[in-house]
Specification:
Number of helices: 6
Strand content: 15-25%
Mean pLDDT: 87
Radius of gyration: 21 Å
Largest sheet: 5 strands, parallel
Low-confidence stretches: none
């Protein structure tokens, strides 16, 4: 028997008492769910718009290159989604549908099915996520429970525009991703 096998056999031979996992309290959120979610998005340097506000804002924003995979705004696209994400290097705006949002921190779950290309929410200069307010949960615990049985090959929580801060406490928005996040609550 090799040294490795001896070590592994010794580890397997250690009697370990089974213990129950600790109970995780349901912390919930204080206040109304939608308002808590909006405050979280604002705290993450994002913006929240109604459908009417977004429809008014979009033409004024002046984006020439837009990819919209949103069920709510398919007509907003000015280009079709290419197969190669490198062709999107100068994409101005991506509009995507989120599956659900988490009120406590403003995180929005996006899955492969709604992304088209995994790079899309990160390569675009500005990002809009359309979210049905009926699809809000209070906490990340509830969010993780919701995706526990997901069959998607890829998913990501996005909680605001890209940002980073250095040791001098200088916040930089859009350092390695979208410069802005607008959430359209429908």
């Amino acid at each position: 028997m090799s040294s490795r096998e001896n070590i592994l056999a010794a580890i397997k031979g250690i009697a370990v008492e089974q213990k129950a996992l600790p109970e995780i309290p349901d912390f919930g959120v204080q206040g109304e769910l939608t308002e808590t979610f909006i405050q979280s998005i604002l705290g993450n340097k994002g913006e929240v718009l109604s459908k009417v506000e977004f429809e008014s804002w979009l033409p004024k924003a002046g984006f020439s290159k837009i990819v919209s995979l949103s069920f709510h705004f398919p007509e907003a696209s000015t280009l079709t989604l290419p197969e190669d994400p490198h062709e999107l290097e100068d994409l101005g705006l991506a509009i995507l549908d989120g599956q659900f949002g988490v009120a406590e921190n403003g995180a929005i779950w996006l899955e492969d099915d709604n992304l088209g290309l995994r790079a899309l929410p990160f390569i675009t200069e500005h990002l809009v996520i359309v979210l049905d307010r009926k699809n809000l949960v209070e906490t990340m615990h509830q969010g993780y429970n919701r995706i526990a049985d997901a069959v998607s090959g890829f998913g990501v929580f996005i909680a605001g525009p890209s940002k980073t801060a250095d040791i001098e406490q200088s916040l930089v928005i859009g350092a390695h991703g979208a410069k802005s996040l607008r959430v359209v609550l429908v």
